[in-house]
Task: inverse folding
């Protein structure tokens, strides 16, 4: 015949052993607490349990590699200004095209003045005056279809980069495709990072 007291003691010992194992597996309370894993990223949830590889970082002092027909000129510009990056220039060239075309359509000479070289500003100022006199509806930029560097050169301290644009313009009734080459210039010997529009040609 079994002893009830002994059975209770055995059950209590088993319970204490189980609680002790849980305590060791889950971690102790207090200052240390259990170890937490960081929440998985969206990429990890999509790809599975393996952590995603870290994205490559651009090292600012890493020498860029220039390719294409303008590579020699871009290399010369970089050698004169080590902060020059083609991708940064192209972002600025696209933004400049949008701002300049919009300002020209509005007839906003104040916005155009700091973006254009003297000769270009004088020509566009005269064109705006003629348009306003004749009451011609200006074409506005609908979208830029393509931008690419056409050529580049370093003339003394003056860097020049020509960008080929293909854009869709409209006046509310008709649309047309504009294909132009805009040349930007900058004095690399100064600390001014801004480029001026120096010339505009119709692209073939």
Result:
């Amino acid at each position: 015949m079994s002893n009830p007291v002994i059975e209770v003691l055995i059950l209590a010992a088993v319970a204490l052993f189980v609680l002790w194992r849980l305590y060791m597996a889950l971690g102790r309370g207090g200052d240390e607490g259990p170890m937490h894993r960081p929440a998985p990223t969206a990429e990890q949830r999509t790809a599975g349990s393996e952590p995603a590889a870290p994205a490559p970082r651009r090292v600012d002092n890493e020498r860029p590699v220039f390719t294409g027909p303008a590579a020699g000129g871009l290399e010369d510009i970089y050698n004169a200004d080590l902060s020059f990056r083609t991708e940064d220039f192209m972002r600025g060239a696209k933004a400049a095209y949008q701002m300049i075309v919009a300002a020209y359509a509005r007839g906003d000479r104040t916005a155009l003045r700091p973006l254009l070289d003297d000769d270009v500003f004088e020509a566009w100022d005269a064109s705006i005056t003629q348009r306003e006199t004749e009451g011609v509806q200006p074409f506005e930029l609908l979208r830029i279809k393509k931008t690419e560097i056409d050529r580049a050169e370093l003339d003394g301290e003056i860097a020049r980069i020509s960008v080929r644009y293909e854009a869709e313009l409209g006046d509310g009734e008709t649309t047309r495709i504009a294909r132009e080459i805009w040349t930007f210039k900058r004095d690399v010997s100064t600390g001014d990072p801004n480029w001026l529009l120096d010339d505009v040609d119709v692209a073939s």
About this structure: The longest helix spans residues 4-26. The chain is about 40% helix and 25% strand. Confidence is low (pLDDT under 50) at residues 14-59.
